[in-house]
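Hey team,

Filing this mostly as a record. A colleague (T.K.) asked me to run one chain through the structure pipeline before their review meeting, and I want the input and output archived in the tracker in case anyone asks later how it was produced. No errors, nothing strange. Just documentation.

Input sequence:
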Amino acid sequence: MSVTTIHQPAHREALWELEAAFERGDLITIFGRCTVEYDGRAASTLGLGRRLVILKPDGSALVHTDENQQPVNWQPPGSQHHAAVRDGQLRVRSVRSSPDETLDIRFDAVEQLSALSVSGRRQLSVTGSEADLRTFLIDNPDAITQGFEPLATERPTDAGPIDLFGRDDSGTPVVVELKRRRVGPSAVSQLQRYVDAIAREVGDRAVVRGVLVAPSVTDRAAALLDEAGLAFVSVEPPSSPAADVVDSADEPTSTGGRSVAAEPPARADERE
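Output structure:
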């Protein structure tokens, strides 16, 4: 891996390195004293402070302080990075056109700048996912309840899609909610909403069973399941024989500053 690092560069030296790194498609880190301004659907300003800025070749921009794992401000993939020296400052801008948003970072001093040629970033092996768990249960339906017959996955209801839907050996509808990690009361509430939705569909005061499948649940969740007459089955997500491969080129695009696949960090301006 090629790595270039310069310490306490003059602004012009930092600019030359940034321009070369942009051209190469490097991942860039800049640490120094800066201000940060965001302008778009809202506006925010961070006063002068020592911060770490990360610029990724996919257009992402992250501004970190010495607290928490999430950036205090950011721009999503698809943004464009620009650099210039203006009014005695190194100015780094991340610009997004749809919607129109600009993250403007102005350094009065750069303490370290690194450009890294990152490899292996395009593939991520995923095992033990909810998809693995669903496949396992479809192949082993008795793990849910004796005589369970899977009928549909991601079955739509007015409360949202059900992970796994089927019937038991007596013909009773069974709603199965899958979780890959230990869960609490919110998972019980989610399962109850799906059970209620199926009951409304079936009508005539039909009995609908609900089963929460997860490695474990909290004591409060267990109590709520018991109160609601819902069942819990402990199953660990199995590892795939061949791991799923996620290519970053196929990742969901960001919409409105928020990733479809995962909740991104809140911004300093808390834009929605």
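Quick notes for T.K.: Residues 241-272 have pLDDT under 50 and may be disordered. The first strand starts at residue 3 and ends at 7.
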